[in-house]
Amino acid sequence: MERAALLRRLTWQTGTVISTISETPRVKTIVLAVADWSGHRAGQHIDVRLTAPDGYQTERSYSIASAPEDDHLSITVERLDDGEVSPYLVDELREGDELEFRGPVGGHFVWDDDLGGPLFLVAGGSGVVPLRAMLRHHQAIGSKVPVRVLCSARSLELLIYRDELKELAADDLIDISITLTREPPRSWRGYRRRIDPAMLSTTGWATRKEPLTYICGPTAFVETAAAGLVALGHDARRIRTERFGGTGV
Amino acid sequence: MEPLDGNAMAGVLRDLFGRDMTTMGYECPGCRRTGVVAEMAVYMSGPGTVARCRDCDTILLMLTERRGMYCIDLPGMPQPVLPPV
Amino acid sequence: MAVTRGFIGRRAAESSRVPPGQYVTRDFPVLSAGPTPYTPLDTWDFTIRGAVDKPVSWSWAEFQQLPHEKFTVDIHCVTKWTRLDMAWSGVPLDTFLDAVPTQATYALAFSDGGYTTNIPLADLRGGKAWIVDEYDGRPLEPEHGGPARLLVPHLYFWKSAKWIRGVELRTTDQPGFWEMFGYHNYGDPWKEQRYYGD
């Protein structure tokens, strides 16, 4: 394609914050009421735009945390201490506030029942957010696709959706493994190290099952997980990845 | 600094092309790697957005905004076929 | 334009030191158009080439021996942040240019990783530009352009090429990486020369 100049189309819309939920000491879920929400696919994200009184604007992408079937659109935001947008969203935004965004966007890191499985969902830190949307969608439609999940977090306190993951694990079709990389409790029976090929092999599927894999997390985490699975013999074309700038896990 | 990936460009590309562009294919002019836009290594912190080949760093897509007008260059997509709306 | 309640963002400072359209930050944002090169110091050199009789290079050790200046300047980035009072140490470009006679009037700085930016040669002379290898009393971090970067504080910060390896002297102007892509050829923050045609 030749270089092209294109006029921007303005597609920003507004949602009203109906509640915020503390997931961990530095992570909040923001639930939005949106008039005429077009619907979304599990795994998609929205771009949020903030505008200061002096006209300064800045925008960031956040994964949608809710399933398409949920009543409201929600995002889950991790507070980055040197961030410009996330401290506002986590500390300042409250019920009744309006939030400007565009979306849903993204057609690659999405899962519907048609795409089948078996599914292997690998999350580092807040990378669990779009995977949670997929899990909720899986539950909502009564999918028969078997799912294995591997979540890496620094500690149990920093594991996002801890209670919900416990409930999901009660489903016969869903297996959830958790690794805590920094401060596992003494009684912790799960993994207590960073992800590696051995862990991916034990918690995931055999290559002959030809799983469909989704990996989301900080860039270094995603590279490690994707390279590990390819080294184990998994087809790179069946591995979808999403990287974000954030804190390590 | 660690690059993001092409998923991070989904919003702006959707805005410009009126459809999802992250599933669009590319071929790297440097090393011939093929893939989809979502897999590109993306640097967004500079004056514009630069998307590179994950294997050889060749530039595949550049995007700058100039007061509401966007300029886009797609060296990784010499004959792009736009995905359906 | 809908203002987001409670969002302040970067503060627009009413100061004679802040150019129009800029916001003051206390951070040092990392701006990159590609991967960080991490060039080993024993293979690093700085070269003046192009419209000269013979290219001249300085090894890292030779560069270290050159008299360094410590100075404090304000930095203005085209992405709208301004940071006041940044303390650097480096070698004035005059030191290198005085060693290489030339008829050139333009310069194209080139870096590891393929980045380039063009600057009129006069803007690199007269103590207005440096090759810096130290920020805030410490060796310049790779993510901020270390081991050494160009610093031209009177122009927008994209002109201060990170990971600099040399300057090509030219009799004709050659737009660099961002200049070729719609950014202003000169980039004076006080005239808000952000884009081509400003």
Automatic annotation (TrEMBL), chain A:
It holds the Pfam family FAD_binding_6. The keyword Isomerase does not apply. InterPro entries: Cbr1-like_FAD-bd_dom, FAD-bd_FR_type, Flavoprot_Pyr_Nucl_cyt_Rdtase, FNR_nucleotide-bd, MRET, OxRdtase_FAD/NAD-bd, Riboflavin_synthase-like_b-brl. SUPFAM superfamilies: Ferredoxin reductase-like, C-terminal NADP-linked domain, Riboflavin synthase domain-like. GO terms for molecular function: 2 iron, 2 sulfur cluster binding; oxidoreductase activity. Residues 10-111 form the FAD-binding FR-type domain. The keyword Ribosomal protein does not apply. PROSITE patterns: FAD_FR. Its cofactor is FAD. Keywords: 2Fe-2S, Iron, Iron-sulfur, Metal-binding. This is Ferredoxin-NADP reductase. The lineage of its organism: Bacteria, Bacillati, Actinomycetota, Actinomycetes, Propionibacteriales.
From TrEMBL, chain B:
InterPro entries: DUF6510. It comes from the Bacteria. Pfam families: DUF6510. This is Uncharacterized protein. The lineage of its organism: Bacteria, Bacillati, Actinomycetota, Actinomycetes, Propionibacteriales.
From TrEMBL, chain C:
Gene3D superfamilies: Oxidoreductase, molybdopterin-binding domain. InterPro entries: OxRdtase_Mopterin-bd_dom, OxRdtase_Mopterin-bd_sf. Residues 34-178 form the Oxidoreductase molybdopterin-binding domain. This is DMSO/TMAO reductase YedYZ molybdopterin-dependent catalytic subunit.
